[in-house]
């Protein structure tokens, strides 16, 4: 089992509906456009998603500077459209009970959607240049994606 005392939370408010934010997380065509930190990319052909409880997903992030590839994936644990999405995140073939867990909560607001992102099972803090900074950067890319006309 992962150590659930470890982890961190990030939050963003997007000028987008919960349906639009949900789609960015669950539609492979959309995820390929933002599911990576700044300075990386996600080839569309690498994204596979079976968005249902027990379904799996996988994608490959590519470091744009040196071409290093990182295959990542997991299992969807909870799927409540437009409200909540829970999934493991790490080695796509890893034991889901030994893999960090991401919980997303989407709350409609007057400005759009407030999204809470929580990663449990790993340490992370601002400036770590790893888990925290990577996800913080990826959520920035998501914000840019959602603000496109």
UniProtKB/TrEMBL annotation:
<feature type="domain" description="Activator of Hsp90 ATPase homologue 1/2-like C-terminal">
    <location>
        <begin position="16"/>
        <end position="146"/>
    </location>
</feature>
<protein>
    <submittedName>
        <fullName>Uncharacterized protein YndB with AHSA1/START domain</fullName>
    </submittedName>
</protein>
<comment type="similarity">
    <text>Belongs to the AHA1 family.</text>
</comment>
<dbReference type="InterPro" id="IPR013538">
    <property type="entry name" value="ASHA1/2-like_C"/>
</dbReference>
<dbReference type="InterPro" id="IPR023393">
    <property type="entry name" value="START-like_dom_sf"/>
</dbReference>
<dbReference type="Pfam" id="PF08327">
    <property type="entry name" value="AHSA1"/>
</dbReference>
């Amino acid at each position: 089992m992962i150590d659930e005392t470890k982890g961190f939370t990030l939050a963003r408010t997007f000028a987008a509906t919960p349906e639009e934010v949900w789609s960015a997380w669950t539609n492979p065509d959309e995820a390929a456009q933002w599911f990576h930190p700044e300075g990386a990319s996600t080839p569309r052909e690498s994204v596979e998603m079976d968005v249902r409880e027990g379904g799996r997903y996988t994608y490959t992030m590519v470091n744009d500077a040196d071409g290093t590839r990182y295959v990542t994936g997991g299992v969807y644990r909870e799927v409540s459209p437009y409200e909540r999405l829970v999934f493991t995140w790490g080695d796509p073939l890893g034991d889901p009970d030994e893999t960090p867990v991401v919980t997303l909560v989407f709350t409609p607001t007057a400005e759009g959607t407030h999204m809470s992102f929580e990663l449990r099972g790993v340490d992370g803090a601002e400036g770590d240049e790893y888990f925290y900074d990577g996800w913080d950067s990826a959520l920035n890319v998501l914000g840019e994606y959602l603000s496109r006309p």
